[in-house]
Design a protein that fits this description.
Strand content: 25-35%
Helix content: 25-40%
Largest sheet: 7 strands, mixed
Distance between the termini: 21 Å
Radius of gyration: 16 Å
Strand order of the largest sheet: 3-2-1-7-8-10-9
CATH class: Alpha Beta
CATH topology: Rossmann fold
């Protein structure tokens, strides 16, 4: 997949354009895409480092509107729309949480507003315990990314079942992330 020229990705919960980023290598190979990050400080880095991309300072969730984002001060990669996960991670590392109201779109809305007829070759979802809600906000009959990596650590069985139900099969699993390509339907 990385050898494909001019591919398109959607990266949700991007946090940093270089460190632990699932789409950095694609970008360096000429791909472009949509980066979504609710944390203001984090998305500012994308505005500078990824000018070819659409960089959105929003969240993705079950309904269009606003949600409370629990920003973990001192390690933004632990922030989440899931209060329980944010509290657990902040407590584990002795950090504090700041509550921020963030605009949220459904995944289907993101695709409709920003894809402009492109096919998603690769999608990454890393939302610290809010991953299933993001996946559920898509119209899977209309928008079918070719390959998906999703953080499954906090909602393991629910995400695996959901992806199987939508005709994706798990091919890699380290109990933190899972990779699922779209199944060929013959």
């Amino acid at each position: 997949m990385i050898s494909k020229k001019n591919g398109f990705y959607v990266d949700i919960g991007v946090n940093d354009p270089s460190v632990n980023n699932n789409t950095k290598r694609f970008y360096e190979k000429g791909w472009s895409g949509i980066n979504i990050e609710p944390g203001v400080d984090s998305i500012k880095k994308f505005w500078i480092d990824r000018p070819r991309d659409i960089n959105l300072n929003i969240g993705v969730g079950p309904v269009k509107g606003t949600l409370t984002f629990y920003q973990v001060i001192g390690d933004s990669s632990l922030s989440s729309f899931n209060i329980n996960v944010a509290k657990k991670m902040a407590s584990r590392f002795g950090l504090t949480i700041e509550e921020i109201t963030i605009d949220v779109l459904k995944l289907t809305d993101v695709f409709e507003q920003f894809m402009k007829g492109k096919i998603v070759d690769f999608m990454s979802v890393d939302a610290e315990g809010f991953d299933l809600e993001i996946l559920q906000s898509n119209n899977w009959n209309k928008y079918r990314p070719t390959q998906i990596i999703v953080e499954i650590a906090n909602q393991y069985y629910e995400i695996i079942d959901f992806m199987n139900h939508n005709n994706y099969r798990l091919i890699f699993n380290n109990y933190h992330n899972g990779i699922s390509p779209l199944r060929n339907i013959a």
